[in-house]
Amino acid sequence: MGFNDNLNNNYSQRGSSGGNGRSGGGGGTNPLMMMLMSSVARKFGIPGVLIVGAIFLFASGGLGGLTGGSSSMYGTEAQQDQVTGAGNFDHCQTYEDANRYDDCRILATGVSLDMVWEKKLPAEAGVSYTAPDLVLGEGQLSTGCGTANISQTGPFYCPADQTVYMSVPFFDRLKAMGGSNGDFAVMYVTAHEFAHHIQQTMGTLKYSNYQDPGADSGAVQVEVQADCYAGVWASQADKGENALLDPLTESQIQQAIDTARAIGDDAIQRSSGQEVNPDLWTHGSSEQRVSWFTKGYTEGTMAACAQPFNS
């Protein structure tokens, strides 16, 4: 079960490729503390912050060695020019390809997300939907938020250039951390990153502040709302005559739930050999993330995802 023949063969044009293909150095000290204490994370703030959808990072220095260039937090013009070109996704031709290859699956998920949000956002929030750019990259690349090694950071959204950046090998690391090895786990993470674009469009992404963590922090509220919006997409993606997905199964939804549970702040703290400390949370506990994804999927409305900053 997955994508069906409603998926147009030109879906390979939904994204582009970027990066130099080299994963660079780095190695695995304490991923949670790298995320929370990184001087880069403190430097960027909103609106320049990279919204990292998966909570944990994979290189020493935090945020995958993200740097802002010589004097600009968004990187120099020369750095930003490094990510160019239409990419090469020639193998992404059919819906079967989208069900077989992770990069094709991400591109097809982007098309599905566009279809859902271009209806949902104006109908329920009174805001027009403009699709974010989508870059599938490896190694060092430049973004509107600075230079990052996406092989180390994993997926993220940059509000400065309104682009979702994805890394396919990330999902192998996600599996190693206890996330699902199912196809829908890839789609859930993609939907979570697109949800940050929805928040940026609505002007609520600014409430995320990694410098002020905590179980009830604005950062956690923004992240769990993105999980909820991912659930809203899942509730709609298999509906209607032109739906790109076959009816979702309980097993597929469980894949998203297992992944959300694996990347909760408390789960990451435990896997890092730390005591659970809610005062350091920026993405939400496993229970919070699962609960909000499930709420979005069950209720299927943006209103179900409302957070205190929406009042």
From TrEMBL:
It is found in: Membrane. Coiled coil: none annotated. InterPro entries: Uncharacterised_pept_Zn_put. The chain crosses the membrane at residues 44-66. The keyword Nucleotidyltransferase does not apply. It is a single-pass membrane protein. Keywords: Membrane, Transmembrane, Transmembrane helix. Residues 16-25 have a biased composition (Gly residues). Pfam families: Zn_peptidase. Residues 1-25 are annotated as: Disordered. One of its GO terms (cellular component) is membrane. This is Neutral zinc metallopeptidase. It comes from Candidatus Rothia avicola. The lineage of its organism: Bacteria, Bacillati, Actinomycetota, Actinomycetes, Micrococcales.
